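A note from the maintainers: we've had questions about how concatenated examples are separated. There is no special marker in the raw files; a new sequence line simply starts the next protein. For clarity in this README we add a label.
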Amino acid sequence: MLLSYLIEHNRYLNIVGIGLIIAVAVACSKNRKAIDFKLVLHALGLQFLIALAVLKTTVGQTILGGVSGAIARIYQFADQGSSFIFGQLVDASGPWGFIFAVKVLPVIIFFGALMALLFYWGIVQKLVLAINWLVQPLLGTTGAETLCAIANSFLGQTEAPLLVRDYLRVMTKSELFVVMVSGMGTISGAILVVFAAMGVPAPHLLTASVMAIPATIMLAKIIIPEEKTSAQTEQVTVVMQSSASNMFDAIAAGTLDGLSLALNVGAMLIAFIALISLFNALLHYGSDMVNALLAMLNVVWRLPSVDLQLIFSYLFAPFALLLGFTGQTALDVGGLLGTKVAINELIAYQNMVALNLPERVVDVVTYALCGFSNFSCIGIQIGGIGALIPERRGWLTELGIYAVFAAALSNLLSAMIASLLL
């Protein structure tokens, strides 16, 4: 019975894939001796439990649906302010489609004001302490990094750090890496709605984002293990009080911080996407030059047009095989994974929908693509988190590539586990 189940859809390869992902992360660890394998086992077990609860029980699906609805309301509130300035451009269903500058950047401004107000009231501090009390015995992570990892599964990678903005400065490199990886390994509620409207299965999008919480923490702690303790892990009381004189002062300060954050994100995104396009153009030019030389030598074979997408599709093709796919489907899935890392998940999901893949393939691939793990997001985090802690921008630039790598592995890990259960 079990054997036939594992053979069906090549599920036995998923088990191999789970082991391989963890092995790859361990091999790339900055300090393998410092890895907390108890945390690894607990996080992996928690990820399986989340998948079972959501994919196999109606209670889990109902709870996640309620949370998703609440988050969607927050973005609707932000749209109310945006529509006053931008009018109909806020409506992504119009002929102009989804405009990042109109739909996402204003949310950062609104959320900056909201979080400053909640911090003034002391709500954020209580959340940090409560989550630290609940999760510390299980994973051994601090309240601030865990809260940010959880928030990233529903909020954006620039909004979630605002929850713990006053804790960022005292974080260790390992804790900050969790913030980065969890931001890249998940998608925001606003983007989730956009993907669902494109035809991507919403329940699997939401499940994937929640499953990424323990996955991103685990892989972040494997690659950049905790080597020293911060004030939080030493359980020294970190007194964080708002400097605002009243709630309106807090709102004003938060709005200005959010504006600065939004401008940084927009500028970094423009620069990084432009540079990626430039690099792809150079690769295309190199391919053309090689083919011209082959033609001069009367060689029939031609080099395909090389770009980052093609390179990463070949790199990720083995993972497509470990997801249980074969033949052309494996090549298609490898291409989608490469598109997600080299460009972004939006284009990857668009291509997935256009391919008209079988339902189960779409469901599994949804998990593998469900994250902001691409090169342009390095720029977003440098601009976003770097604006909050400019003295740590060096760490952000140093860890950017590692964060993309760890987040991509976390998405693949979720896909392997989901494939075992679907």
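[label: protein 2]
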Amino acid sequence: MESSLAIETAKHILQTFGTVLAGGMFSGLIAKKIKIPDVAVFLIVGILVGPELLGLVNVKADSALNQFILIFGSSYILFDGGASLRLTVLKEVWITIFAISTAGVLITAAVTGIAAHYFLGVPMIVALLLGATLASTDPATLVPIFKQVPIKDRVAQTVMSESAFNDAMGAIVTFTVLAIATGTSEFSLGKASLDLLHQAGIGLLIGGVAGYVAAFVIAHEKYDFLVEYAPLVTLMAVVGAYMTADRMQASGFMAVFVFGIIIGNKDIFGFKMKEGEEKRLDEYVMTTALIMRLFIFILLGAQVDFSLMNKYLISGGAVVGVLMLVARPLAVFACAGPDRRTKWELRELIFMCWTRETGVIPAALAGLLLGLKAPGAEMIASVTFIAVLMTILIQAPTTAWLARRLGLLLE
């Protein structure tokens, strides 16, 4: 009987995978045809095939399968994003990245929290918990967008790097506010700062070591004995870097992102692959990242709970409007504006204000708060999904249009 149940479960998972892959393939074709980032179409298709409408895909948000896809998929997309960055560009904009990934998250959380307190009528501490959950941007959304929409290098790489670095800060702020809301601890700036340094520093170190070792065994002039297995090496290293950092209570996403940066810039460290091998690796990474992307966003769309969202649709939408149009611009101008080293142009700052999609990371934080039965968790989950839908369906499709109007699109 147990064997039969296991077989039926396996068949159900296989059918779900087939449906998601088919939906993702046709979604990608549609997105390419109408020239918008595919994540927006994936999300819509997910809503269509989910249990609320067609009922073809039903994967619970708290299931092991969904958590596996979220963790591994986000990690691989981050690795892919890191590999597309150039250290020469990052050296120019690192001050802005640091400021907007730390102070910018605090500004966003505070402004959004105040708006939530006003529009939703919830206690300030619960409103701030919502603001902290929504404060970080999402690499799983932004990396694919900038892969598809060619933007001026320093702008694209700043926004992508910020999305990778601010997830640790967003998580720290969220759980600090949660501890205060539940009365388990008091806020300590020193403790929060040390926690951030630990998470980011250990993650950066692990990613750097993993990247150097992987580059050594696939691209060293004499010792590239795993060059034929380069795709598997990157796959194994993504899992290893994330898990090692996570077990050391550091940022796994930081580790895989830095790993990607090292692999993408391995020539700076004296490692160079043959052209054919490099092309094979690039094609594998591109295909795997696409598969992870379509799984993440189709499943995310399929998990939208309309009955819960309807309860907070107007007030939650107003909060998200403040997040997009007030909190984000304040964070960008306050953190990037004073950076005299980079000398940002007004059009670049305006573009960065618009590119702050909410996606997998805030949704995962909201899911964790639900599991922990945090104060206002249902409301936070509902407004988070409203933010995911609004930012991805409004901001993602208009990225190329705005970049073209501001003269930042590379034709």
